[in-house]
From TrEMBL:
Pathway: Cofactor biosynthesis; biotin biosynthesis; biotin from 7,8-diaminononanoate: step 1/2
EC number: 6.3.3.3
Residues reported to bind ATP: 22-27, 53, 111-114
Protein's UniProt keywords contain ATP-binding: yes
Keyword terms: ATP-binding, Biotin biosynthesis, Cytoplasm, Ligase, Magnesium, Metal-binding, Nucleotide-binding
Name listed for the protein in its UniProt record: ATP-dependent dethiobiotin synthetase BioD
Assigned GO CC terms: cytosol
Cellular compartments annotated: Cytoplasm
Role this protein plays: Catalyzes a mechanistically unusual reaction, the ATP-dependent insertion of CO2 between the N7 and N8 nitrogen atoms of 7,8-diaminopelargonic acid (DAPA, also called 7,8-diammoniononanoate) to form a ureido ring.
Organism listed in the record: Kiloniella spongiae
Major enzyme class: ligase
Length: 222
């Protein structure tokens, strides 16, 4: 196990994971890219081209081409990476997934696929990629009923691997009780609460920026 508190990553950035797939990792990543003036990388993508996260980030942020790094692996079936790779006769090799070299003043948002314990192959899970890139991890959690259990399980999985937690971002209608329970039982701060948007557009992402300002300031990216 790697003690990430003592080994600083070679770059500045955050790894965005979630308590599940479809929980809002790309939505939150777009808000973080915008608020932190960051670059974006989705190392492992599964699903058809029209559902890819990278073009969605471009649509929502208007980020320059040069600030988007190519996926290391992409598979057409909308499945867990280990299975999507197997369907096309491939195996994901963790040694082929390497942080892009970015400039000193650049900040990188890395988005996982699915949740923390999604398998990449018979040996490694998404958490092993988090350990490898060694960036502080943000957990995207739903705000509603059921989120306490999912979020605490995710926190436990990350802490037990020595990963540094930057905080939880709650996505959906504000729920003070759930926020307080996550902070108390998970001993991790909820760094932002993002509301449900009627439509997800570049304008709605800009509208979220004030909610991420304090978090951005804590990362010295304001
Ligand atoms: N706060 C929100 N308001 C409105 N729509 C949202 C919000 N958060 C997420 N969505 C929508 O919910 C869907 C799932 O969100 P998103 O694609 O961000 O999930 P994900 O966790 O990135 O999924 P994956 O595991 O496939 O990467 C998308 O259509 C997204 O636009
Ligand atoms: C296809 C989907 N949108 C993601 N790209 C992959 C989600 C994998 C989830 C695996 C699981 O936890 O069962
Ligand atoms: Mg996504």
């Amino acid at each position: 196990m790697q003690d990430s508190s003592s080994v600083k990553s070679s770059i500045n950035g955050l790894f965005v994971t979630g308590t599940d797939t479809e929980v809002g990792k790309t939505f939150v990543s777009a808000a973080l890219v915008k608020s932190l003036t960051a670059s974006y990388w989705k190392p492992v993508q599964t699903g058809p081209d029209q559902d890819h996260d990278t073009p969605e980030i471009q649509r929502l942020t208007g980020i320059a081409e040069r600030s988007i790094y190519p996926c290391s692996y992409s598979f057409p079936d909308p499945l867990s990476p280990h299975e999507a790779a197997r369907r096309v006769g491939q195996t994901i090799d963790l040694s082929n997934i390497n942080l892009p070299s970015i400039s000193e003043d650049e900040f990188l948002i890395v988005e996982g696929a699915g949740g923390a314990l999604v398998p990449l192959n018979d040996q490694f899970m998404m958490t092993d990629l988090m350990v490898k890139v060694n960036l502080p991890v943000v957990i995207v959690a739903r705000s509603g009923l059921g989120t306490i259990n999912h979020t605490l399980l995710t926190i436990e999985a990350l802490k037990s691997r020595g990963l540094t937690l930057a905080g939880v971002i709650m996505n959906g209608p504000e729920n003070r009780g759930n926020r307080e329970a996550i902070e108390e039982y998970g001993t991790v701060p909820v760094v932002a609460e993002l509301p449900r948007c009627e439509s997800v557009t570049a304008e709605s992402i800009v509208g979220l920026m004030p909610r991420l300002q304090r978090f951005s300031e804590s990362l010295n990216r304001n």
